Amino acid sequence: MRAVITVIGKDMVGILAKVSTACAEANANVAEVTQSVLDEYFAMIMLVNIDNLSCSLEELQRGIKESVPSMTVHVMHEDIFNSMHRI
């Protein structure tokens, strides 16, 4: 099972490190990451393996938000994400 994590906001040093650390603390393994900085804005989409997650997805999202409080963070199960984006 995987989850999709999105992080958007003003760019700053250490965003990827902080989000990755929050994932590691919840035992979510980072599978893929894409990120971009547009002028002063940071955008990242991350796929994480949640087979061995040690908390709920809501708790994972809360942990990530606490690590980057100025950013907008969404965590969604991959199945729900795919269902929402089918034509």
The residue-averaged pLDDT reads: 95
Unreliable stretches (pLDDT < 50, length at least 5) are: none
Helix content: 25-40%
Order of helices and strands: EHEEHEH
Task: Give the strand tally.
Answer: 4
Strand order of the largest sheet: 2-3-1-4
Shape: globular
Biggest beta sheet attributes: 4 strands, antiparallel
Number of helices: 3
Structural class: alpha+beta
Tell me which oligomeric state these chains represent: single chain
Query: Strand percentage, roughly?
Result: 35-45%
Q: What distance separates the N and C termini?
A: 22 Å
How do the strands and helices of this protein lay out in sequence?
Elements: E1 2-10, H1 15-25, E2 29-38, E3 41-49, H2 57-67, E4 72-77, H3 78-84
Antiparallel strand pairs: 1-3, 1-4, 2-3
Helix pairs in contact: 1-2
Notes on the structure:
- This protein has helices spanning 15-25, 57-67, 78-84; strands at 2-10, 29-38, 41-49, 72-77.
- With 87 residues, it is α+β, with helices and mostly antiparallel strands.
- It has a four-stranded antiparallel beta sheet.
- It is globular.
- The model has no long low-confidence stretch (mean pLDDT 95).
